[in-house]
């Protein structure tokens, strides 16, 4: 319950179904851009045919994404802020993925984010009673494959050639390059047979 006694001095809050709700941590310009993006997504991206990659790339670039011409984002992928997305040659964001790009997300060449995966660049500081927003960028190297339903936490860098097994979670930047990794938290399982980028 939001009461005058429970608020910290100077803290602005709104009551929402009996709970105190703080004002958005995002600037007005960011919220306006995301409102525009939600309309653009609903009208121009989500209804587009599965094969219309060039069309979707054009729309994403219009909204500030940096995409190689051969990058692919499927129409059911949910991207929070396209202007924070960089995708290199042959990279792919698959169907029904969730790219929570509050901070920058970089996907290296020939890397794939598979169905239902959640790439999450934001969290909240649970040690602070106000739970302020925290953000950190995520980087996938070259030839990385996130299999189905993988979670990647804020601030993580996944090096070249890593395959993360289905339904695994990556919380730290400690995975070795060119390894199959799995689990929650993900750990190395074995080195890949072709532990180098193909020519």
Task: List its salient traits.
21 strands; 7-stranded mixed sheet; 5-stranded parallel sheet; alpha/beta
Please characterize this protein's 3D structure.
This protein has 199 residues and is α/β, with parallel strands linked by helices. It has helices at residues 28-45, 53-62, and strands at 13-16, 19-22, 66-67, 72-73, 78-79, 85-87, 92-93, 98-100, 105-107, 112-113, 118-120, 122-124, 133-135, 138-140, 145-146, 151-152, 157-158, 163-164, 169-170, 179-183, 186-191. The chain has one domain: Hexapeptide repeat proteins (UDP N-Acetylglucosamine Acyltransferase, domain 1), CATH 2.160.10.10. Helices cover 14% and strands 30% of the residues. It has a seven-stranded mixed β-sheet. A five-stranded parallel β-sheet has the order 3-6-9-14-17, covered by helices on one side. The chain has a five-stranded parallel β-sheet with strand order 5-8-11-16-19, with no helix packed on it.
Main sheet attributes: strand count, strand direction, barrel closure: 7 strands, mixed
Summarize model confidence as the mean pLDDT.
89
Number of domains: 1
Task: Report the order of strands and helices.
Answer: EEHHEEEEEEEEEEEEEEEEEEE
Shape: globular
Q: Please identify the top-level CATH class.
A: Mainly Beta
Structure at a glance:
This protein is an alpha/beta fold.
Question: Would you spell out the secondary-structure blueprint of this structure?
Answer:
Layout (H helix, E strand, L loop, with lengths): L12 E4 L2 E4 L5 H18 L7 H10 L3 E2 L4 E2 L4 E2 L5 E3 L4 E2 L4 E3 L4 E3 L4 E2 L4 E3 L1 E3 L8 E3 L2 E3 L4 E2 L4 E2 L4 E2 L4 E2 L4 E2 L8 E5 L2 E6 L8
Parallel strand pairs: 3-6, 4-7, 5-8, 6-9, 7-10, 8-11, 9-14, 10-15, 11-16, 14-17, 15-18, 16-19, 18-20
Antiparallel strand pairs: 1-2, 12-13, 20-21
């Amino acid at each position: 319950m939001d009461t005058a006694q429970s608020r910290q001095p100077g803290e602005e809050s709104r009551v929402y179904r009996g709970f105190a709700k703080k004002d958005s941590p995002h600037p007005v310009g960011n919220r306006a851009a995301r409102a525009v993006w939600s309309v653009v997504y609903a009208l121009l991206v989500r209804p587009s045919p599965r094969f219309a990659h060039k069309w979707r790339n054009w729309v994403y670039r219009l909204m500030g994404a940096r995409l190689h011409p051969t990058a692919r984002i499927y129409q059911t992928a949910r991207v929070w802020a396209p202007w924070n997305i960089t995708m290199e040659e042959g990279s792919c964001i698959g169907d029904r993925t969730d790219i929570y790009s509050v901070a920058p997300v970089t996907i290296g060449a020939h890397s794939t984010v598979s169905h239902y995966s959640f790439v999450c660049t934001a969290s909240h500081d649970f040690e602070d009673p106000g739970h302020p927003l925290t953000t950190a960028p995520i980087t996938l190297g070259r030839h990385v494959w996130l299999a189905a339903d993988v979670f990647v936490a804020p601030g993580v860098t996944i090096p070249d050639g890593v395959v993360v097994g289905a339904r695994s979670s990556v919380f730290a930047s400690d995975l070795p390059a060119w390894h199959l990794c799995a689990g929650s938290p993900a750990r190395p399982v074995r080195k890949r047979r072709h532990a180098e980028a193909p020519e």
